[in-house]
Structure prediction request, 362 residues.
Amino acid sequence: MRQTRLHSNHLKHHGKMIEFFGWDMPVEFSGIIHEHTAVRERAGLFDVSHMGEIRIKGPDALAFIQHLTPNNAARLREGMAQYSALTTPKGTFVDDLLVYYQDEDEYLLVVNAANTAKDYEWILSHADAFDVTATNVSDDYTQIALQGPKAQGILSRLTDVDLEGMKSFHYAMGSVAGVASMVSRTGYTGEDGFEIYTTHSGPGVIWEAILEEGKSVECLPIGLGARDTLRLEACLMLYGNDIDDTTTVLEAGLNWLIKFKKGDFLGRDILLKQKEEGVTRRIAGFEIVGRGIARSHYPVFRAGEKVGDVTSGTYSPSLKKSIGLTYLPIGSTAEGTELQIEIREKRVDAVVVPIPFYKRES
Prediction:
């Protein structure tokens, strides 16, 4: 298995390690619910170095990004990033990603760990018509996420970057714990927070400095388990579960990231037709009324008829109830619609609820 440059730090802090898409990663340190609560109430530190980074550079860099993604990258300026997707000609997902503007002819794409090789091949397969070079620079980067309401206070004491003036989906270059870094106000938890990118060979300095500085507010190292419960409460999509190459951007409820007026992009015609005609299914949230936890792939029923499968499901530590996501026929997506989830061959009552399940107070 591959190891991030923070592997020894995880062992030092007693991380429980598991295989995750070929990486040896911590699933938890002190318990999933304990870690989840720390992020919601205080702060938590994540190693997300398994994520992929792909650099697009050349005179046609913007045109190429515009071709590959439905969001409008022309809006990006120095110090800005945006959430977007790599779309197929059918308007479905190759992946979701972050697009960082680095220069007028250079962008950094941050993609999902499981998809890095696939995404890179997809990008290369569409590059011939553009004057660009695409380089997989994933091995160069360590990515650390500090998330939670106390994150800014902790990080501000360790960096020369102006965090107070940094808006969401903006970034700046500077140093963290004396290490050259890119600091971005982004995250995957539903909380305020930052992601730190560095190409330094010894990023453990940053990891340990943050945990030491955060001791006074009980900042904890966080594993993959709490990362999943946090992102699901905030209804942040997980590729391979909630979105994939069979689900369109509109079906996934991500209408806001499609900018039809920007011009052509992969899947535009299909998505525009789907918008005009209306989707026949859409992702929806549910909560379990009875006992049990819905997991991925569990069958979903309405009035005795199977209408879908759970894409993501868990026990929500914040809400103290079991929640999940599923794609439902459009006529079954209204709030209050009664469902049944088959859990261990027993059908348990559930009800459609608004999403996101959790939204932090601004």
Q: What stands out?
A: The chain is about 20% helix and 35% strand. The CA atoms of residues 42 and 150 lie 5 Å apart.
